[in-house]
Amino acid sequence: MEIYAFIVLSVLAIGSALGMILNKNTVNSALFLVLHLISLAGIYLLLKAQFLAIVQIIVYAGAIMVLFLFVIMLLNVADEPSLFDRFRVGYFLAFLLGVAVLGQIVYSVAGVAGILPQISPEMERIGTVEAVGDVLFTEYLMPFEMTAILLTAAVVGALMVAQFKSGKVSRA
Amino acid sequence: MTLSYIVLGVSTFMLLNSAALAVYAERRVAAFIQNRYGPNRVGPLGLLQPIADVLKLILKEDVTPQEGFKFIHTIAPVIPVTTALMTVAVIPFGDGLVVTEINASILYLLAIASLGVYGVTLAGWSSNSKYSLLGGLRASAQMISYELPLGMAVASCVLFAGSLNITDVAASQEVWWNVIRNPIGAVIFIIAAFAESNRTPFDLVEAEQELVGGFHTEYSSMKFGMFFLAEYMHVVINSMLITTFFFGSYHLPFAGLWLPELTTTQKMILDVSVFVGKTGFFMFLFIWVRWTIGRFKFDQVMNLGWAKLLPLSIANFLIIAIVLYVLNMMNV
User: Fold this and answer.
1) Is residue A79 pLDDT above 70, yes or no?
2) Each residue of B152-162: pLDDT tens digit?
3) Contacts of residue A119, Cβ cutoff 8 Å, sequence gap at least 6
4) Cα–Cα dist B107/B91, whole Å
5) Taking residues A115-125, what's their average pLDDT?
6) DSSP class of residue B203?
7) Which residues are within 8 A (CB) of B273 and not within 5 positions of it... i.e. 6 or more apart?
8) For residue B133, which residues of chain A lie inside 8 Å, CB to CB?
9) What domain range is B276 assigned to?
């Protein structure tokens, strides 16, 4: 069951990544990227990394991509001339079908050879919030705090840049 | 396992129908507040009015703007409905009555809420109309801004439960409801929930005088119906969340102190009816506020969100964290 969910999600991820690159319309590209990020979150869920999957959706799909979309929509970017003029929907579907068949073959060969990875109970415990929090605030405390300082510096810098020109306008 | 499927089926069915009921309730309560009758012709007390409305919407012509982006225009109304339905997966309706136990279900709720912004933004943009675009931008700016105080208010509830699992938050309120332990958080959460569901006093998304109909100006027929459905589903969902996080979820006030031991079936019935009763009250509150209070200007909404609610919610969170830490130190 899980292996089929994995095949569906990974084909979706690859397909949406290709769709993002090949699409002429920038807004469509951004939406394909959102779909790609969500299918990646699904793959994390299959690996029992619930925290990582949800944070992926909150940060990338929910926050960063919305900003991307805002910028693209407001700039009103014209369609790019396509690099792949002879691209057709048929090729795309054929590619997806090929990936699915390849995945099935690799799965059965690996199953016969007995080298399929197993998700052990220890691995399941790694992905929970408690486990992530534990290592984040003990072993990796220093990098964590450094990242926090870096992000704060970036926010302050962004505010400085944004208010540079409007500095002389008195606020009512 | 079977129980969670039953909960899933019943709760989804109830949520879909409660949206229709909320539309009816809104029109009746509005009429009552404005001292008129409201819809009372279709069926007993006008109860069949939602069915007539939906029938009318389905029979209307479905217009897509010629210069718009047809595919995105079509999928945009589906997104808010989907995200509203997805939230049901983690809400506890009673002791053990939850569809699925996710280790970080509160983060899941916030993630789903942040995905709902796409529906509004895309609807506004794909219509290729200035009113729609402005309405969509307003709506998404407002929803993004109020996600932050909402998240901080929820985080202050997490401190009491000590867990990111929503069932633990519900269980931790057996004696003291969070609204008593954390009243500022409750006020912030309720305000942010109103803003998240784009209801008055934050309904500038469809301020008719300025924007015609906001992001759904160019929508008709059942596509408009989907946005309408999603709005009322968000009212129901947000009532459920207010109940779950701050008003004791399925617990009666101070239930841990006086409620006698009950059998499993009795407990289940009591839990569900208490939860539904509280949710119904907050749905009424949503409607009541809409027909009582006027609308903010857009700069006032942004000012309230970023300059007032966000610092207040962060301060509230820090103070609660410090107090809880000191109390823990004294106990040990």
Assistant:
1) no
2) 998 888 888 88
3) A47, A48
4) 13
5) 71
6) -
7) none
8) 73
9) 2-329
